[in-house]
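Design request, tokens follow.
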């Protein structure tokens, strides 16, 4: 770190580093220099630091790595609260006709709403899997990336696509999909225009055909080849429901994981959302290949999809992060509450009270997320030399003060208020409010765009 870098010093704070040893400090310090963590440890910060622009007394707070979201569909922010009593396939067919009418103005507002909700709750790295690109809808990818950049969060855009419509045995209507060639060309263009491979990148792009039931086998195969040629990651939905499993057996003569393997979609550069219906050999295949999982407990519950076998995945060595999933199937859109939901829902599964503990839940939402996004050397834990993406959770208020253990307080307790979040060393949230966005204006614009979309969909 250059000696001239501005420093932020945080002291008197409980720290859960989420490093490999789960190192914690009851009262410690963090020194941020520029966009990196310079030092972290017990007690006070070193004396004689120069260029200290800010000293923060962290009394009554827990510092953790910033939360990392690994699966989302931002545009759904303006189609929340619809088809509320449906399973996945019925929910999708109810919503596709509306989704197919989105445009750039709508996706920008929806991205702002999605990002605001997550950032306020301690998310420092967001991702958006966007796969609906109606013809003539404008620069949708650009609008989403602009919203993330303005909010100040680190971001991965998973450039999605669909080319298997009803006429080819798929689920989406014919007018909601792209052609194979069009999807591949637009994806390559988005990677070349926006993907930053550097250590402290704020924007990355992944190749992300939507799902086996909305994408041709050829797009899966060529998408994988494209990503590997460009050196970017691969993302899709996998093994979400029993209906999807049945679809794969009928159409491909094999289950989802075997289908993914046959199309080049298992590997340490791949992560998949959901992975609810996995047998022992599927989990072993993910572990053997280093394929990651975005676990989305609230969405899985909302759509009655089932409970992913997260304890078995972790025991096998599968990288697992958390995702809120699109907010048409998880209307809250918050990630910090997913720590608690992941823990509780997995305890309803086979492993019962041994399924997950508070520290494992925190790890899923931080280091696990960094792993599946391919950024574990840069973010996901608080360690000297890593990027300064961190959150100070207020735990001395009514919701948490009577819980002695800070990690138990933020995971088992109510959603803890965020006093400060830093992304790349820069404050993004202070005292629960966003610093680079107007929440009231976003509330208004998202309502207006939701109404505009509903109107256009009703007319068509
Ligand atoms: Zn999804």
């Amino acid at each position: 770190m250059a000696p001239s870098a501005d420093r932020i010093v945080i002291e008197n704070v409980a720290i859960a580093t989420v490093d490999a040893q789960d190192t914690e400090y009851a009262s410690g310090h963090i020194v941020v220099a520029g966009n990196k963590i310079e030092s972290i440890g017990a007690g006070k910060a070193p004396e004689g630091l120069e260029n200290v622009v800010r000293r923060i007394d962290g009394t009554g707070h827990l510092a953790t790595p910033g939360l990392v979201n690994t699966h989302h569909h931002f545009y759904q922010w303006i189609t929340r609260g619809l088809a509320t009593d449906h399973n996945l396939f019925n929910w999708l067919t109810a919503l596709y006709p509306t989704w197919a009418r989105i445009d750039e103005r709508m996706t920008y507002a929806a991205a702002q709403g999605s990002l605001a909700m997550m950032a306020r709750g301690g998310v420092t790295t967001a991702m958006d899997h966007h796969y609906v690109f109606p013809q003539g809808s404008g620069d949708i990818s650009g609008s989403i990336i602009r919203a993330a950049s303005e909010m100040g969060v680190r971001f991965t855009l998973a450039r999605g696509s669909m080319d298997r419509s009803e006429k080819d045995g798929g689920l989406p209507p014919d007018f909601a999909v792209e052609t194979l060639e069009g999807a591949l060309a637009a994806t390559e263009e988005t990677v070349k225009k926006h993907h930053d491979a550097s250590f402290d990148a704020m924007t990355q792009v992944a190749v992300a055909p939507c799902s086996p039931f909305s994408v041709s086998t050829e797009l899966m195969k060529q998408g994988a080849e494209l990503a590997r040629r460009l050196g970017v990651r691969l993302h899709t939905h996998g093994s979400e429901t029993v209906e999807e499993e049945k679809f794969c057996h009928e159409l491909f003569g094999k289950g989802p994981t075997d289908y993914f393997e046959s199309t080049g979609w298992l590997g340490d550069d791949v992560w998949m959302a959901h992975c609810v219906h996995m047998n022992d050999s599927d989990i072993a295949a993910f572990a053997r290949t280093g394929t990651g999982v975005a676990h989305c407990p609230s969405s899985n519950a909302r759509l009655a999809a089932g409970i992913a076998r997260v304890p078995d995945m972790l025991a096998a060595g599968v990288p697992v992060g958390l995702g809120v999933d699109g907010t048409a199937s998880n209307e809250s859109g918050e990630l910090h509450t997913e720590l608690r939901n992941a823990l509780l829902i997995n305890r309803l599964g086979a492993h019962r009270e041994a399924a997950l503990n508070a520290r494992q839940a925190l790890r899923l939402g931080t280091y696990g997320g960094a792993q599946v996004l391919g950024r574990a050397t840069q973010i996901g834990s608080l360690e000297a030399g890593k990027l300064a993406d961190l959150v100070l959770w207020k735990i001395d208020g009514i919701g948490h003060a009577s819980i002695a253990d800070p990690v138990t307080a933020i995971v088992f307790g109510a959603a803890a208020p965020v006093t400060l979040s830093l992304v790349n060393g820069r404050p993004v949230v202070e005292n629960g409010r966003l610093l680079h966005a107007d929440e009231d204006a976003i509330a208004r614009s998202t309502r207006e765009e939701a109404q505009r979309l509903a109107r256009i969909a009703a007319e068509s």
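Comment from the thread starter after seeing the answer: thanks! Residues 439-459 form the longest helix (21 residues).
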